[in-house]
Amino acid sequence: MAIGAEGLIQAASYGEKITIVMVNNANFGRTGGQMGLTSLVGQVTTTTPMGKNPSEFGYPIHAAEMVASFKGVTYSARGAVDSPANYLKTKKYLKAAFAKQIEGRGLSFVEILSACPANWHLSPVQALKWLRENMLPEFPLGEFKNVDSPDQSTKEEHSEKK
């Protein structure tokens, strides 16, 4: 989110006919496990050894919900790969997102919650448990937007306000 947010926001605003897949492991895994914008409150990382304090570092960004708020977005979902059932749902979200892209409907976005055993300093089994107990309550799974066109989204929002 920190590195790609500007491009994501611009692409969503323009309704680019692309699919963006974001893997959320609640830290910067490629830089040694530093705190990221999706790190959880209280989460210990290499840059927050006492746990992430929201008054200093803010709250976790909910990317799928944020992206769903843009008119140019026709699909936004969040899945996880912590269990066979969630894996299958995530696969369904990816198929739906790519179908919107292929049909040229608008921007599609899928956030995938994933474990990071190495930087969480947990075994793979413990990391999946940590994801279920900590990440799933913070980041709800499911589809946040699924419309056929940006215009349909606008009409639906206006009719709800009446």
Helix content: 40-55%
Structural class: alpha/beta
**Numbering strands along the chain, what is their spatial order in the largest sheet?**
1-3-2-4
Radius of gyration: 17 Å
**Strand residues, percent:** 15-25%
What is the element string, with H for helices and E for strands?
HEHHEHEHHEH
Distance N to C terminus: 35 Å
Count of helices? 7
For the biggest sheet, the summary is: 4 strands, mixed
Low-confidence stretches: none
- What overall geometry do the principal axes of the alpha carbons give? globular
3D architecture notes:
The chain has 162 residues and is α/β, with parallel strands linked by helices. The chain contains seven helices and four strands, in the order αβααβαβααβα. It has helices at 5-14, 54-57, 63-68, 84-102, 117-120, 124-138, 150-161, and strands at residues 19-24, 73-80, 107-113, 142-146. The protein has a four-stranded mixed sheet with strand order 1-3-2-4, with helices on both faces. β2 (73-80), α4 and β3 form a beta-alpha-beta unit. The longest helix has 19 residues, at 84-102. The N and C termini lie far apart (35 Å). The model has no long low-confidence stretch (mean pLDDT 91).
Structure keywords:
single chain; 162 residues; alpha/beta; four-stranded mixed β-sheet; 7 helices; 43% helix; globular
